Amino acid sequence: MSNPSHLLDEATRRLDALRSTIERWNYEYYALDRPSASDAEYDALMNELRAIETAHPELITPESPTQRVGTTPQAGFAEVAHPLPMLSLSNVYNEEELRGWAARLSRVVPDTPFRFVTEAKIDGLAVALTYVDGAFHRGSTRGDGFVGEDISANLRTVRNLPLRLNPDAGPAPAAIEVRGEVYMRIADFDRLNDRIVDEGGRPFMNPRNAAAGSLRQLDPRVTASRPLRLFVYSIGYVEGGIMPSTHLEALAWLRSFGFDATPDAMPNETIDEVWERCQWWLGRRDELAFQIDGVVVKVDDLLQQEELGYVAREPRWATAYKFPAIQQTTQLLDILINVGRTGALNPTAVLEPVNIGGVVVSRATLHNEDEIERKDLRIGDWVIVQRAGDVIPQIVQSIPERRTGEERIFVMPDWCPVCGAPTHREPGEAMRYCTNSACPAQLKQHVQHFVSRGAMDIAGLGEKLVDRFIDLGMIHDVGDLYALDWEAVAALDRLGEKSAANLRAAIEASKAQPLARLINALGIRHIGERSAVLLAERFGSLEALALADRDTIANVPGIGPVLAASVFDFFHEPRNLAVIGKLRTAGVRTESDEGPAGNGGALAGATIVLTGRFAGLSRTDAEEQLRRLGANVTSSVSKKTSAVFAGEDAGSKADRARALSVPLLDEAMLRAVLAGEALPDPPAKPARARNAARASAGADA
Ligand code: IVH
Question: 26-56 pLDDT, tens per residue?
């Protein structure tokens, strides 16, 4: 009696509707980057689809979006013969070779103008996909070009692979083979690697390896958990339908069927244009969301393609302009420690010099000891080094297979390599620090920062001179700069009176630098130019900032608790206060012209406390909106509090507000204030009321 036929019909209709809506949303989300449904709506439809399929398992088809989650593991991959071999491309590495390729075309098919198409060469894995009657039928790897492996179950999990060809694009051909590249976006790759490392696994070397490793999983559920995507770039064959006549038409056709076709494919009429376009792609390489390793240049006309034919296993009608590689292998010769301004021990890799895309690389940053451990780096290892655009070169990983046994494990030193003081690593922090704040390495960098352009801007005080002053014991902190013995300075080797006089003038002039520069110059951990400006604007003087409590500092918009703690600690360190004392004595300006400016909001300068529950508004929201208006939101009521807003169940804070005659306001007033209403004045105290009355009486008289 279960599943009478009319119920089944209804279920089938609903299933069709659900599946096509979900597929359309997938397409909008993954291919167009233009989602029209929210995650919640999407989940609701998926849940409904799953429920119907659970009730009617006989209606599950392999093209159902539910099947993207991956089926049960397989024993191995079956072999698939490619009806049309999957070939490779010839490569060209420069303009001359590109022109040589074009010239050969004209020798094979003379007196014919060619139109070219340029498109990105996606750095992923080639796949061939067949669709029968519009449904995804099978997908395979390239293999040796003639025989590949059947990875259909894994390919089904690739989110932007259409399981059905879009019926709105017209009738699907009886059979069609589509070719493309499976890849992983760089951001997805980074997240995946983080996850793998968190779970104690070994990260993938690059997005291409990650895509390959994920596609060749025997368990499709693993593949489903990997953020794979697909770009298609050609049609292999069509049966029971017409083949487009140009490559660009083929791409448009594929797009209309719901595929993500290789982006920004462009027609180019001349080889000059082709070369220009190749350079355009090269320039964009580092901005793309995915890795490309070159540009594919194709003859657009498919008949011409056929005429041009093949040489060996490469088509004559296409070639790949290959970009310079961004990864190379070399040897890790040593790891050096550099002590920074904050005392952080920064490890740097010393590499056997290697040319990566035209730049010789001999150093790479290593960030911290965890990174060295995570990448399993040993001194003497062969390593893969990567350089992308202007980014500082990094070591991707070691190649343990090439170890000889001579390699040394690196240990972060327990003693500062500069001053010999113990080093310390706070639990939960990645960096290890020298514990001696008078460490010359710290002092040198600290002074260099103090005098730098964005800070006190003292021209003529370069790195070498700073080092000399410190090494000769002429300065022990930045305060000493303003009390230099100028006779001794002028007597310094190679400096001379003229330079000494100029330097003296520059140091003198720096005393008048704006407060924000001074705050930045102090070298407070986490505080840079921008946050220094915020602090200067809010507090108006170094003294006010030094006296502020953590909460008040944290409440400055753009600062927050971490920076606030750092500022607070700085001003509670006796050594720092001594330096500030020296600066003040020397006449360095510690106030801004404007004085404390709040931050310009309607509630600037007001200190507000919230207590109790508010009906339609969370405390966090309210606090944030108040801060945005410039208010300082604190947790305890004092005489300085401008207003207390009390919601339901307000307790002692409301009592305290009454006791201190601080305005006590309700939720309606809170909403009014958030909407722009001014804060009411404090209730007049008896004494003041009398004074006021007398004053106005006097004026009347
Ligand atoms: S067309 C006859 N177009 O590069 C081969 N290939 O080195 C025609 N590839 O195996 C290939 N992006 O996997 C073509 N836009 C693109 C491509 C592309 C990446 C891969 C493809 C091929 C390899 C050849």
Answer: 888 776 767 788 888 888 999 999 999 999 9
Q: Is 234 in the pocket of ligand 1 (CB under 6 A)?
A: yes
Distance from Cα 656 to the centre of ligand 1, integer Å: 74
228/121 same-domain check:
yes
Taking the C-alpha atoms of residue 31 and residue 119, their distance in angstroms, rounded to an integer, is: 17
The model's pTM is 0.59
Question: Which DSSP state fits 640?
Answer: T
Q: Is the pLDDT of residue 664 over 60?
A: yes
423 lines ligand 1 (CB under 6 A): no
In the chain, the number of structural domains is 6
CA 87 to CA 314: how far, in whole Å? 6
Domain end call among 557, 586, 615: 586
- Could you give the residue numbers annotated as active site? 121
Q: Domain residues for 527?
A: 515-586
Q: Is 665 left (phi over 0), alpha (psi -120 to 50) or beta?
A: beta
Pair (165, 271) in one structural domain: yes
Determine the Cα–Cα distance for residues 185 and 593; give it in Å rounded to an integer: 50
Whether residue 224 is contained in a domain is answered as yes
pLDDT of 267-299, one tens digit each? 999 999 999 999 999 999 888 999 999 999 999
DSSP state of 479: G
Q: List the residue whose alpha carbon is closest to atom 13 of ligand 1.
A: 126
Dist. CA 216 → ligand 1 center (Å): 19
**Ligand 1 binding pocket includes 539 (Cβ within 6 Å):** no
- 126: Cβ below 6 Å to ligand 1? yes
Best mutation site among 118, 181, 230 for ligand 1 pocket (most ligand atoms within 8 Å of CB) = 181
* CB-ligand 1 contact for 116 (6 Å cutoff): no
